[in-house]
Amino acid sequence: MITTERLRVRPATMADVDFWVRLHADPEVHRFVGAYTQERAEVRLRGIEDSWAARGYGLCVVESLESGEPLGRSGLNWWDEFGETEVGWTFAREHWGKGYATEAARAVLDWGFRDLELERITAMIHAGNDASIAVAERLGFTPRREDTVLGNPCTVWALDRPQASRRR
């Protein structure tokens, strides 16, 4: 579990299925990441639990530290197709514009570089997702290549591990 000034970032589990479906039900939220039925959410969350067991990381639910309310999701996702670890962020629309995505993703990146010793973390962002592009730029990501993710064109942004967190 990761804690920031305002947020708790914890592994997503099967217990989060209802939240997962609600989060992705808003057309403005699922425009770039897709909607989830109950069944699709269960499959996705099982995969996330498997990732945590196999790799020691996966996607997370981001909660308000003050209220415990789930606000969105962030975390790290391994892509076999690319041989890369991606950081992601998706928040309920009522929580947009409050800096939660940047705060959560920054904490996840710090953890990934420092504790997991990842050398590079990507962010796969679909064209037109200006809010995510702004988050990626605030975090120091730069565009590296154009690619296709789940049948959709995107720009793959990347951030290399800072020198300060490299082992000597």
Automatic annotation (TrEMBL):
<dbReference type="InterPro" id="IPR051531">
    <property type="entry name" value="N-acetyltransferase"/>
</dbReference>
<keyword id="KW-0808">Transferase</keyword>
<dbReference type="InterPro" id="IPR016181">
    <property type="entry name" value="Acyl_CoA_acyltransferase"/>
</dbReference>
<feature type="domain" description="N-acetyltransferase">
    <location>
        <begin position="7"/>
        <end position="162"/>
    </location>
</feature>
<protein>
    <submittedName>
        <fullName>GCN5-related N-acetyltransferase</fullName>
    </submittedName>
</protein>
<dbReference type="Pfam" id="PF13302">
    <property type="entry name" value="Acetyltransf_3"/>
</dbReference>
<dbReference type="GO" id="GO:0016747">
    <property type="term" value="F:acyltransferase activity, transferring groups other than amino-acyl groups"/>
</dbReference>
<dbReference type="InterPro" id="IPR000182">
    <property type="entry name" value="GNAT_dom"/>
</dbReference>
